[in-house]
Amino acid sequence: MALYGAAAAVLRELERGRGGVKSLVYNSGFPHVRQLYALVSETLRYSPVLEKLLDGAALLQAEKKLPPQLAKVLVYDLLFGKGVKCGGRWKALARRHRARLQAELARLKVQHRVSRNEDLLAPAASPAASQVPRYVRVNTLKTCVDDVVDFFKRQGYSYLGKAASVEELRALSGKKFLLDLHLPELLVFPPQTDFHDNVLYTSGHIILQDKASCLPAFLLSPAPGSHVIDACAAPGNKTSHLAAILQNKGQIFAFDVDTKRLATMNTMLMRAGVTAFQLAQQDFLTVDPTDPKYRKVTHILLDPSCSGSGMVTRLPQEEAAPSAERLRALAGFQRKALSHALSFPALQRLVYSTCSLHQEENEAVVEAVLRDHGSAFRLVNTFPSWPCRGLATFPGAESCLRASPATTLTQGFFVAVLERHRDRDAASSSVPAAAENPQSTEGTEPGAAPKKRKRKKQKVK
Q: Which regions form coiled coils (predicted)?
């Protein structure tokens, strides 16, 4: 059951837009990651076929306690994989329905006039996923950019310096890498470069994180010593990024409702050297903003569950637009979460982000919440040099950021920064120069060379 349960959990997280296949598998805590990755990948590849089989055989109607993600994994292994070699009671359940499922598979082949299982598969996925580079965030809690660059050079990679344009990132090939043109601690390698077995990854010196996913913490930019809430925290990459920005000074409160995800996240944060954090198995919507524990919370990162439509690793059938009903449900939850976050009394700055392409989950959510909180909060025109802006659906929506494989060579993403209204002097003191002042001479200014950091005592060898 452990393998099938782990695979079903990864599929569930994919549906919630919590990450890509590789990151979810490698952060799952499952001991045999290659076995898990193969099962998840093949189940996804056969997903449209499996859905037809489940519908035709009425398996979910017959077994009401069987989660749909687990059903897909079991039916894949039963009909296309190794024949359900483990799984306890779930193995018995799958075998009990084998005859009906095999009959439905035979009917499907006749209907499509094919003889092989592979001929039922849809055409290959869009090439967008193969065009997005491998982004590597240097974990400054353990090392620095210079040391990581030196390490990769010793491994035979050629360092080309700081990128001047997105086109330079697009042209990367072989064993060449660049420093990103926007984010100061992000290295860029050719697509499909795999570092999951690299000692820097396994020791927590580097974090494999898409560039767009790095934007929320970078734009929130809490000062060291701040108290921060990561409202929907798992799997933890953004949390570890926040900790690096805080330099482990201050406090991060990270929430998630799933015990297993929190346990995995705790392992990941400890590996990354994060110390100033508290994990809570709690729905963020149930957190009391007036609790004295949160009276010093000035920054909130809100990355709620979404359709995940911006994830380029999704297969064609997953890229289809979600139903209007599902979008309404997601947007309703997102509006509640954003409104709730803005009710924390000491809050000064908030980042709202999704990995969705849909206006209903992005600009429409921000617009609706600002109608209720606009007298207290404003939308910040952040990161002016970022090329892809929010859809002009309401005045000021262009202040938001969007990301896409075509324009920014990243996953599809949306980011909005909200800040409490205050007088001009107070506001200017809290806005990070990197995000809002294109003329800033600070080292984190987009397009400028990063400041040299002091070399850490813990050097990469």
A: 91-118
pLDDT tens digit sequence for 138-183: 999 999 999 999 999 999 999 999 999 999 999 999 999 999 999 9
- Are 90 and 177 within one domain? no
| Closest by CA position to 243, among listed 266, 264, 259 | 266
| Structural domain range at position 415 | 212-420
Comparing C-alpha atoms, which of 22, 16, 77 is closest to residue 313?
Answer: 22
Q: Are 131 and 263 in contact (CB under 8 A)?
A: no
Residue 169: inside a domain, yes or no? yes
Same domain, 22 and 74: yes
- Considering only CA atoms, which of 211, 206, 207, 214 is closest in space to residue 188? 211
Whether 247 and 396 map to the same domain: the answer is: yes
Task: Give a yes or no: residue 245 inside a domain.
Answer: yes
DSSP string for residues in 298-349: EEEEE------TT-TTS-HHHHSPPPHHHHHHHHHHHHHHHHHHTT-TT--E
Binding residues for S-adenosyl-L-methionine: 232-238, 256, 283, 303
- Name the domain count of the chain: 3
Tokens (6 digits) for 35: 């076995």
Buried b (16+ CB within 10 A) or exposed e, 61-100: eebeebebbbbbbbbbbbbbbeebeebeebbebbeebeee
Which residues on neighbouring strands pair with residue 280, listed in sequence order? Answer: 255
pLDDT single digits (tens) 181-239: 999 999 999 998 989 889 999 999 999 999 999 999 999 999 999 999 999 998 899 99
Q: Is 313 helix (H, G, I), strand (E, B) or coil?
A: coil
3-class DSSP state of 12: helix
Please report where in the chains the tokens 């409104």 appear, as a residue. Answer: 339
Active site residues: 355
